[in-house]
Amino acid sequence: MRSSFPKIVRLSWNEIAFLGVSLAVWTAYVIWLGKDTSWDFRNYHWYIPHALLNGRMALDVAVAHQGSYYNPLSDVPFYLLARHTASWFAVAVLGLVQAANIIPMYLIARSSLQTGEKTLAAAALAFFGMTGGMTLTLYGTHYYDNVFSLFTLTALAIVICRRAEMATGSLWSVAKWCVVAGFLTGCTAGLKLPMAPFAMGFAGALAVGGGSRKHLATRLAAGGLGGIAGFLSCAGFWMWRMQNLTGNPLFPYFNDVFKSPMALASPYRDMRFLQGGFWNIVTYPIRFSIDYRIADDIPYDDIRIGIVYIVLIATALIWALGKRSKEPLLDPVAARIGFIFVAVTYVFWLKLFAIHRYILQIEMLAPILIAMAVGLWPLPRKVRLVTIGVLFFFALLFTRSEHLQGAPLGDPYIAVDLPKITDPVHTMVVMTGDAPLGFIAPALPPEVPVLRIDGWMMQPEDGSYLTGQMRARVAAHKGALFLIADAYDMGRASAAVVDYGLAIDWQKCRIFTTNLTGAYQWCPLLRRNW
């Protein structure tokens, strides 16, 4: 029996051309930006796939601070590309994936619009969604918020584009699509735990799709099963490994709950941006739209989420009064799904993280959400269109991105001019300080263990089990010992090695550089009182 529902994703040649050109433009832009030199990339995005693929977990300790124990699966594809292909190609693939966000956004907009020139309007909304302050800043970087957004936006696109089928179609068809969308959402949370609030937003979107109780139950059950399958597929192996190694499947996060003896009973997560107090919570989107520093360390300016916050509250009040336009610009059911998706996500994000880039998808969806909200107001059509235009103008006017410094493309992707180690089998390296040094470790011979004896996660006197292990290994080591530290952080390095009964042989230190950034010290270490 043929489905009574029209095919959802049938694109015209003009639409394919628009999406193709958009992908090419944004990919070329990422290539032009060059190599990512962000703090996170230098800290763990290059190191943890190296550690996974080369069996370093039992040899190294906390090289990339807490990042040493993150799920490395999402970093493996780029690492392999960068190691085995030209650097421009690896960066181009990263850029293409980040650019692909425009596809689900275009499909959401096209499916939701109820106006003439639907294709042109959808293209404008989708392209506008690619130009937010944080969105522009994250192009070409390895924070991956704009990579995982492709998963969550695609899941939302499935729910919105197939909303009629989700409400009245065959239960088998409903279950099939909800499993797919749930799997994508679960994968996102499994690959990066800060994306977990989007799983809650996805559940909320499924709950308001309409239809019978059977359709509602099917959507929630299938979406939940798909989400669990996606999460376990992407995170199960790593959580099992962390549980066996440390006693905490999310190590080191939430160690105040799991209480692994390997580390302190601390949450080990960034809680600087969490809000306390009713007015701080209620006004947060307005305040971080004015001053990014209360919601993120990455410089940007963007008021889109603040605008969305205001217009959604206004729309909710209008609906509560029983008022709405008889000729909405976008489908009310699609709007309801989109509103609940972002509202539920936002609430969980606010409670758990409150870091702007973790809700990048809301910034990207902002133009569509604004058009959905204002398009439902009980005002003349021209007034609504002008209002949307004015809001978009101010959003653009107050958008600023600040691209993190990049490095020129060239091969090998990472080059480090470390001195030659004459006896790597009997050599140990220690790292100190808060600087991101993880990207240097793969340049060392594979026989050399690397121990971060001092940093964000471990300090020489913290009393943790891992620190105790490192102290014992350093004390038992009979061969050469070397220090790697940021060249501008040698005071802290000197204090840290003293706590380990060591001293820096200052006369033999040498500065080395990399093809990304920075100046670093390589110093032999001597044992004190020996």
Chain-wise SSE layout:
Elements (H helix, E strand, L loop, with lengths): L12 H21 L1 E2 L2 H7 L1 H7 L22 H9 L2 H13 L2 H11 L5 H12 L3 H6 L6 H17 L1 H6 L2 H21 L4 H12 L5 H34 L8 H4 L19 H5 L1 H7 L9 E2 L2 H17 L11 H21 L7 H15 L6 H17 L2 E2 L4 E2 L19 E5 L18 E3 L12 H12 L3 E7 L3 H10 L2 E3 L5 E4 L5 E9 L3
Task: Give a written overview of the molecule.
The protein has 530 residues and is of the alpha+beta class. It contains 22 helices and 10 strands. The strands form 3 sheets. Strands 5, 6, 7, 8, 9 and 10 form a 6-stranded mixed beta sheet that branches. It has a two-stranded antiparallel sheet with strand order 1-4. A two-stranded antiparallel sheet has the order 2-3. α16 packs antiparallel against α17. The longest helix is centred in the middle third of the chain and has 34 residues. It is elongated and about 85 Å long.
What features would you highlight for this structure?
6-stranded mixed sheet
Query: Major β-sheet, in short?
Result: 6 strands, mixed
Classification by helices and strands: alpha+beta
Number of strands: 10
Through-space gap between termini: 85 Å
Stretches where pLDDT is under 50 for at least 5 consecutive residues are none
Mean pLDDT: 95
| Cα shape | elongated
Helical segment count:
22
